[in-house]
Each structure stands twice: as structure tokens, then as C-alpha cells.
Design brief:
- The protein has one domain (4-90).
- 24% of the residues lie in helices and 18% in strands.
- The protein has helices at residues 4-10, 29-42, 87-90, and strands spanning 13-21, 48-57.
- A two-stranded parallel sheet has the order 1-2.
- The longest helix has 14 residues, at 29-42.
- 17% of the residues are buried.
């Protein structure tokens, strides 16, 4: 897994990786995120590269509007998977009082 700067040298179209993994009680977050990033990189069309990484460590049952509220990701910050933020950093926003449907 290269850094965004290394990837930018070979790609011209930046995209964002968005990942989520369960807490350590359900799986190994480092293994899961590393696998997710690797698979995303393997499937990139020629000329594309991952410029930003957004991921969280939380239950998959967490409502979309409540994601990225915990600090569970911090214990994995040194895992080697870059992080520019979590779901809340890149999720579309709904007008107040109007529910957002899942992507």
C-alpha cells in the first residue's frame, strides 16, 4: 500500500477510500482495513489513485447519522492505513429535520 503522494505519481484521477470495520470483539480492525484498502487499490481503473482515506472502527449496526462519533479508531491510528477522517467527514449532509437515506 503506497502513500497518496506515491500514488499521485502514477494516477491522475483522485478518489477517496471509505471503509468501516467492526470493533476488536468482532474482528481485527487492522487486518480488515488493510484488506479493504488493498482490494480497493486492485480494482482501481488505470489512471485513478486513492487520494484520501476515510474509515471508522465501529459496529455495522450504527445508524448512519451517528457514525464517526466514537474515538475507537484512535487505537489503530498507527496501523499503517492513512486516515483523513471518518464517515462524518465525507458523508452527504441532509437538511435539518430531513432524514438521509443510506447510500
Amino acid at each position: 500500500m503506497g502513500t497518496p503522494a506515491q500514488a499521485a505519481v502514477t494516477g491522475t484521477v483522485p478518489i477517496a477510500f471509505v471503509g468501516r470495520t467492526s470493533t476488536t470483539t468482532a474482528q481485527d480492525p487492522v487486518q480488515s482495513l488493510t484488506r479493504q484498502v488493498r482490494r480497493a487499490e486492485e480494482r482501481l481503473p488505470e489512471g485513478f489513485y486513492i487520494a484520501r482515506y476515510y474509515w471508522d472502527v465501529e459496529s455495522g449496526g450504527t445508524d448512519l447519522d451517528l457514525r464517526s462519533q466514537s474515538a475507537a479508531w484512535q487505537q489503530f491510528a498507527g496501523s499503517g492505513v492513512p486516515r483523513d477522517g471518518g464517515w462524518a467527514s465525507c458523508a452527504p449532509r441532509s437538511p435539518p429535520g430531513r432524514p438521509r437515506s443510506p447510500p
